[in-house]
């Protein structure tokens, strides 16, 4: 199964969501690889921090370029049950290849950075990917710094999702408080981090179950 984590708005949470899903799926026993296609190499940095943290189950992470994405995916499909792609935030060869290969695409939208949500441009990217990849499901995930998401911001995202074909809104916004980023800095998932907010843990576990429910 190929899961692509893509930029919706406010891409700081995108890589953390990718890292968390990869960890939870690995801990469940899947043979998984996480591909870092992000220009900032965020998932690679996270994996280095994870190797320095004692008693952590390793998560296989590999850097992949846009030009090499398609060939890499074809090869890795023979060796891994699941592939999670931390895709490049901008519209480019790598991000397009990641969308075209995905069984599930997750768009992470930061409610605190909705000014970055360019609905028309993002809709066109998803529609083009679905033309080439009609099996792709799109799951929109909201993140926010406050425990209670602002109703008007949630309404805007719901309206955006309603205009996308084969798209679904994950109902539980991820509370991205300080522990969300601190867990990342230690190379951990929020479910492994003792100080993580219970709501964040619950939402991340629910998201993982949702994404991998049919596999």
Descriptive overview:
Strands 1, 2, 3, 4, 5, 6, 7 and 8 form an eight-stranded parallel beta sheet that branches. Helix 1 crosses helix 2 (42-52) and helix 1 packs across helix 8. The mean pLDDT is 89. This protein has helices spanning 14-27, 42-52, 69-76, 93-101, 119-132, 151-162, 178-185, 198-211; strands spanning 2-9, 32-36, 60-63, 82-86, 104-110, 137-144, 167-169, 174-175. Helices cover 42% and strands 20% of the residues. With 215 residues, the chain is α/β, with parallel strands linked by helices.
- Topology pattern, helix = H, strand = E: EHEHEHEHEHEHEEHH
Overall geometry comes to globular
What class, by secondary structure content?
A: alpha/beta
How does the major sheet shape up?
A: 8 strands, parallel
- Report the total helices: 8
Relative strand content: 15-25%
Assembly category: single chain
Average pLDDT score: 89
- Give the helix proportion (percent range): 40-55%
What value does the Rg take, in angstroms?
A: 16 Å
Low-confidence stretches: none
Measure the end-to-end span.
8 Å
How many beta-strand runs?
8
